[in-house]
Amino acid sequence: MIDGTGNVIEIHSPISNDVHIMIYGNNHKLIIEEGVIFKNGQIWFEDHGCEIRIGSGTTIEEANLAVAEDSTKLIIGKDCMFSRGINIVTTDSHSIISLETRERTNPAKDVIIGNHVWLGNGVSINKGVTIGFDAIVAGHSIVTKSISSNCIAAGVPAKVVKTGVTWNRVRV
Q1: Three-class DSSP category at 120
Q2: What is the pLDDT of residues 14-41, one digit of tens each?
């Protein structure tokens, strides 16, 4: 569906009535692929030309997903598992200005989450972060820098604590 402001919304999975979609601005793109379960939270767009994509088979218990500032993206891979209280943003929302140069020092940056990523309860992911496939982020961690594939990251700020791992939705 394309609305009168150029926003493209493609939802291929039913999402809960407890997921609120807020769109401010024009030419945004929201794509939720097949098999996504999104139970509670908010999807937030601001400014113009931003994109949120949630890959097939991803499950989200509760999350705030926010893209703001022109042309920023939040891409979530396939078969991810997000717990409750997840917060992912592409911006600090307000400008920090250098007194020396009078220029902004904190522009928005994309967030990319690979396939088969597990985010524990209360995880926050800040702008500019990429998380590799098969990664695990421990509960209540704050991710400020990118995380490689097949590892566990934990802490504030999150740091890799174990490598050479994957995860399974089933307790084996």
Answers
A1: coil
A2: 899 999 999 999 999 999 999 999 999 9
- Using one digit for the tens of pLDDT, what is the confidence trace for 59-88? 999 999 999 999 999 999 999 999 999 999
- 74 contacts 65 by C-beta, under 8 angstroms: yes
- Residue 124: closest CA among 66, 71, 163: 66
The answer to whether the CB of 132 falls within 8 A of the CB of 118 is no
In angstroms, the CA 28 to CA 46 distance is 9
Query: Whose structure tokens read 């594939």?
Result: 149
Q: Is the dihedral of CA 155, 41, 108, 146 positive or negative?
A: positive
pLDDT tens by residue, 3-14: 667 889 999 998
Distances from the Cα of 94 to the Cα of 46, 68, 90, 106, 128, angstroms: 12, 10, 12, 8, 16
Asked if the peptide bond before residue 107 counts as cis, ω within 30 degrees of 0, the response is no
- The radius of gyration computed from the CA coordinates of the chain, to the nearest angstrom, equals 16
Q: Which two tokens stand for residue 157?
A: 């700020």
